[in-house]
Amino acid sequence: MSDTLNRERLLRAYRTMRTIREFEERVHTEFATGDIPGFVHLYAGEEASATGVCMHLRGDDYIASTHRGHGHCIAKGVDPVGMMAEIWGKSTGSCKGKGGSMHIADLSKGMLGANGIVGGGGPLICGTALAAKMKNDKTVGVCFFGDGASNQGTILEAMNLATVWSLPAIFVAENNGYAETTSSSWSVACDNIADRASAFGMPGVIVDGFDFFAVHEAAGEAVRRAREGGGPTLIEVKVSRYYGHFEGDQQTYRAAGEVQKLRDEKDCLLQFRRRVTADGDITDAELGTIDAEVLALIDDSVVRAKADPKPGPDDLLTDVYVSY
Amino acid sequence: MARKITYQQAINEALDQEMARDPSVIVMGEDNAGGEGSPGEMDAWGGVLGVTKGLYHKHPGRVLDTPISESGFIGAAIGAACNGLRPVAELMFVDFMGVCFDQIFNQAAKFKYMFGGKAETPVVIRTMYGAGFRAAAQHSQCLYSLFTHIPGLKVAIPSNPYDAKGLLIQSIRDNDPVIFMEHKVLYTMEGDVPEESYSVPFGEAAVVREGDDVTIVALGRMVSFAQDAAQALQKNGIHCEIIDPRTTSPLDEDTILESVEKTGRLVVVDESNPRCSMASDIAGLVAQKAFGALKAPIEQVTAPHVPPPFSDALEDLYIPNAAKIESAVSKIREYG
Amino acid sequence: MVKSGGITVGVIANPASGRDIRRLTAKASVFSMSEKANMVQRLLGPLGTFAVDRVLMMPDATGIAAAVLRAVQANEAQGRTVWPRVEFVTQELVGGAVDSQTAARLMQDAGAKLIVVLGGDGTHRVVAAAVPDMPLATLSTGTNNVFPDWREATVTGIATALYVTGSVGADIALQRNKRLCVQLGERTETALVDVCVTRLTHVGARAIWEPDTIAELYVAFAEPDAIGLSSIAAMFQLIARDEPRGAYLRCAPNGRQVLAAIAPGVLERIVVDHFENMVPGVTYPVRTKRGSIALDGEREIEFHHGQVPQISLMLNGPPTLNVTATLAAAVNSGVMVDPVVRSVVR
Q1: According to the model, what pLDDT value does residue B39 have?
Q2: Cα separation of B190 and B194, whole Å?
Q3: Which of B74, B114, B148 to mutate to test the interface with A (most CBs of A within 10 A)?
Q4: Is residue B47 part of a domain?
C-alpha cells in the first residue's frame, strides 16, 4: 500500500479538507456582502478529491488547476492567507492582486495556476511532465479538469501526447455533474469520462469523490506508477459541488434538495470523521481542535484581506515581461 | 569568421549552437526529428522544410517529434518552460495558430502578469509565414500583428540570414515567450553569417540603408523589396532610408521616429493584410508622435484585404513588390 | 408498469461495472458503455424471434439506455428484425448498487420471469440480494467474473427465450447456487463467490490486489480456472458450485504457499496456514480484530475492535440460467428444427 494512512497523515488530510471547506464557505458568505470583486467558483463538496490526490505529491511535483481552483491550491500548499488577499484583489495576494480567484498560482509550490480557460491545463502538465522526464527528477504532473473540459480538444490532445511520450502525468477528471448548467450525462457522449482513457492507451478508473479513502488509494497507485516510469493514468472522480457554477448562480437547473441530500448523506468531511473516529484512534476532540485552528486561520485571513492595501498605479505596468 | 550560408542554415546553426551550449534547450515539433515510429530512417525530414535536419543525431533525446496536435505540444512546450527547460517548438505554419492560440496568448503570454510576476516562461515558438509558395489561403499568411497585439509576447521577424541566427539565439536566451517568424521564401536567401555564436538584441531596429528623402519601414521579406525599390529610386535622385524593425514587440520606436523627423515622409511596407496590421500600427505611431515632422500623408504598401490566393497570377498581385513601393514613394514625394 | 405485459424479461446493464482501480493496478478490461448497449441489442433479436413480448430495462444516466432506445427506434424504422417491446422501469436514479436493486424489484413486481444481468460478480451479488428467488441469466461485463458466464449475449438470449416461453422447464434450465452471508450487528450482506477479511482498515478504492492485506478467506465454490480471491482456495482444493460445502482459509506467514491469480493481471504468492471445509448453516466468527470485508472481491464493510462479523454458507443462493443445459435440452427435444418463431419483416 503506497503511503499508509497513519495518524499523522489522517489528521493532515482532515486539516486540508477542513481548510478548503472553511475557506470556501467563508468566501461564499463574504461574496454575498458584495465585498469580493469578479467571478468566484467554489470547490466546497469536492475537498476529498484535491486532498486525496495532493497528499501523494511532493513540493516539486506540479499540478494544473481549473477555474474552480481554491481547493487544489490549498491542497498543494499555497498559503490561504495570500489566497484570501488575492481574492480581495489586494497587493499582498498570492499574485499581487493581478490574478484573482481564477488565476491563483504559486510555482514555488508546484501550483501552475488556476486557469480561466476550460481545459487549458492539460497541455501545460504534459510540458511539466516532459521536463520532469528529461531531467529524470522523478516528479510527476497532475492535471485537474472538469467534466466540461473533458470535451475540450486540449484535454484529449494532452492525454494522447502523454501516452505517446510516456509522461509521468495523471489526469484527474473531477466530474461534478454540471458544466455550468449543462449536465455531464448529456454533454459527455460516452458518459463515463474514464472510458476515454482506453482510447489513449492508459488506464482509466472511477472513484467516489466523496470518499477520501477511495480517492487517496487510487491516486496513490497512479502517482506511484507515474513516478516509476509507468506512464499516465486517468482518474475520474465522481463528485458534486455544493454551490453554483459561480457565486450568484441561482442553480435552478438542479433538482430540489439535491445539495442538501449530499451534505447530509455523503459529505466527505462527515464521512471521514465518522470513519476515523470509529476505532478511537482519532478522537472527536482532536478533530474539533483542528476545526478551531482552521476557523481561526480563515478568520485571520479575512481580517487581513480586508485591511491590506490594494495595488497602486505603478503596479499596473509591471510584471508583463522579465525584460522589455 | 563570416561566410555565406542560407537563412535556413543560419536558423539550424543557431539551434545547434544553443543546444550545445545549454542542455535545457530542446527542440520539438511535427516531423522535427522526422520519422518517429516509421520503418525508415530517423531525421528523414527535420521539419517539413528541413530546418531542424541534422540536430536529431547531434543532440540525442532532445529533438522530439510530436503528434499533429498543436494545442497539445505548443502547450507542452510552455509547461516545460515553466519547469526548467528552454523549449523551441515549431508551429509548422503560422496559419495553424488557430488551433493552439489559447495556449500562446491566454497561457504563456499571461503567466508572468497573472501570477504577480512569479513565473517565467522561456519558450520560443518558431513558425513559418508568408506568401510566395503558391500555398494558398491557409499556408501563406503573416499574422505577426496578432502576436504583437498581445502583452507578454515578444515577436522577432528576421529579414536576412545574419539576423535570423542572432535573433534566434537571443530568443532562446530570452526569459519571456518569443514568437520567431521565419519567412518561407527567405529560407534560400544567402548572406554573411559569422560561425561563432552571437545575439541580436530585441527592440533595436536596423537602419538597412541611409537616406534623407523618404523613410521606408519594411518587415521580413519586404526589406529586400524595399532595397530594390530604393536602388531604382536612387537613379531618380530620391534617397530612401530603410528601417527594418527586426522585432515588432518590443518595437524600436525611436529609430523610426528619428528617421521620420529627418525625412518627413514615411512608407510602411508590410506583407500582411492591411487592417490592424504592423503597417497601420507604425503609421499610427508616426502620425501621433511625429506629426509635426510629416510633409506628406503616410503611405502603406500591404497585401489587399483578401485571403492569400492560390493561382500564381493572383498571388503575384497579392504580394507587395518593389514597383508598388517605388510608386508609393513617388506619390508622397510629389505631395506638397 | 403492469403485469399484463405478456412474456417479460428484465435486463440490468450495470453502468458502473468494470471501472474500478483494477484498470490501473492490473490492466483489467474495460467494457465500454457502447459495448454494453451492443450486448443488450444482441439479446433483443433472439428474445423477439423466440416470442418474448416485452423487455424491461433499467434506465441509467450513462448512455446505455439512451443507446438502446436509439437502436430500438432505428430497428423499427428499418423493420429488419422483430424485437420485443422495450420499456424502462420508472425509478429515481441515485447512483451505485441501489439502482440495480431497485430496478430488479420493479421488474419482479412487473412480472418478469427472468432478469438478464450484465455486470461482474459485484452486480450479480447486489441483484441477487434484492430478488433472491428471481432466475438470472448472467453475462460478464465486470472485472472479477467468476460467478457470471463469459458468453456471447446472442446465445444467452436464445436460452433465455427458451426458458421464459416454456420450451425448456425450470428443472433443466435453472441451477441453484450457494451464497455466503455476512452478519455484522444489524447489517447483513451477501456474497456469491467469496468473502475476504482484509487488514485494510478502510474500504478505500474497494479492490484487493496486494496479498499481504489478506487475512481470512471464505469461498462458496473454488474452480480451477477462476480469477480473483476464490482462486486461492482452488489451488488447494476444488469445490464445485453444486457441492454442499465451502471453504475457510487463514493467511499467516508460516503456512503453505500457492500462486494465485487474485485479480486480473495479478499473480501473487499467498501463504495459507489453515484450510477447512465450511459446513452450510454454521456460523464462522471472523478472527481478525479490525479491518475490512470484501464481498466478491470488493471491500464493502469496515469493522472495528469489539465487532465480530459472522460468516455463514447458505445453499439458497440465486437460481441461474444454465445456458448449455437449456440449449442441449431444446436440441434433444427437437424444438430447434423448424422452430416456431415470429416472422422477420423484410
Answers
A1: 84
A2: 13
A3: B114
A4: yes
Domain boundary among B194, B225, B247: B194
Summarize pLDDT for A135-189 with one digit per residue, the tens: 999 999 999 999 999 999 999 999 999 999 999 999 999 999 999 999 888 888 8
* Class of the CATH-defined domain C8-177+318-333: alpha beta
Q: What are the residues of chain C with a beta carbon less than 8 Å away from any beta carbon of chain A?
A: 15-16, 19-25, 27, 30, 32-34, 61-63, 95, 200-206, 210, 213, 290, 302, 304-305
Residue B63 belongs to a domain with what CATH number? 3.40.50.970
- Nearest chain A residue to C200 by CA distance is A1
**Cα–Cα distance measured from residue B129 to residue A262, given in angstroms and rounded to the nearest whole number:** 55
Same domain membership, residue B242 and residue B145? no
Domain count, chain B: 2
Residue B132 inside a domain? The answer is yes
pLDDT recorded at residue C39: 92
Is residue C165 within 8 A of residue C7, CB to CB? The reply is yes
pTM: 0.87
C179-314: CATH topology is Tumour Suppressor Smad4 (2.60.200)
| Nearest Cα residue to C177 out of C318, C345, C3 | C318
Contact B71 A123 (CB under 8 A): yes
> Rounded to the nearest 5°, which phi and psi values hold at B296?
-150, 160
* pLDDT tens digits along B201-248: 999 999 999 999 999 999 999 999 999 999 999 999 999 999 999 999
Question: Which chain B residues are within 8 Å of A318, Cβ to Cβ?
Answer: 117
CA distance, residue A288 to nearest chain B CA (Å): 35
Instruction: Flag whether pLDDT at A81 surpasses 50.
Output: yes
Write the DSSP string, C259-295: EEEEETTEEEEEEEEEEEEEPTT-EEE---SSEEEEE
Domain edge (last residue) among B159, B194, B229: B194
Question: Tell me, what CATH number does B215's domain have?
Answer: 3.40.50.920
Identify the CA nearest to A124 among candidates A147, A97, A109, A143.
A143
SS3 readout for chain B: CEEEEEHHHHHHHHHHHHHHHCCCEEEEECCCCCCCCCCCCCCCCCCCCCCCCCHHHHCCCCEEECCCCHHHHHHHHHHHHHCCCEEEEEEEEHHHHHHCHHHHHHHHCCHHHHCCCCCCCCCEEEEEECCCCCCCCCCCCCCHHHHHCCCCCEEECCCCHHHHHHHHHHHHHCCCCEEEEEEHHHHHCEEEEECCCCCCCCCCCEEEECCCCEEEEECCCHHHHHHHHHHHHHHCCCCEEEEECCEEECCCHHHHHHHHHHHCCEEEEECCCCCCCHHHHHHHHHHHHCHHHCCCCCEEEECCCCCCCCCHHHHHHHCCCHHHHHHHHHHHHHCC
Backbone phi and psi for residue A201, each to the nearest 5 degrees, phi listed first? 70, 30
Touching A: B residues 108-137, CB under 8 Å: 111-120
Q: Does the domain made of A7-310 have the CATH classification 3.40.1190.10?
A: no
User: Which three cell numbers, joined as nine digits, stand for C314?
Assistant: 447458505
The domain locations on chain C are: 8-177+318-333, 179-314
- Let me know: does B75 contact A122? Beta carbons within 8 Å: yes
**Quick one: B185 and B38 in the same domain?**
yes
Phi-psi region of A11 (alpha: psi -120 to 50; beta: other; left: phi over 0): alpha
Instruction: Collect all residues with Cβ–Cβ distance below 8 Å to A76 and sequence separation of at least 6.
Output: A50, A54, A57, A63, A106, A109, A110, A111
Cβ contacts of residue A34 below 8 Å, gap of 6+?
none
Say what the pLDDT of residue A279 is.
81
- Size of the A and C interface in Cβ pairs below 8 Å: 86
The reply to whether B122 and B216 lie within a common domain is no
Whole-complex ipTM:
0.91
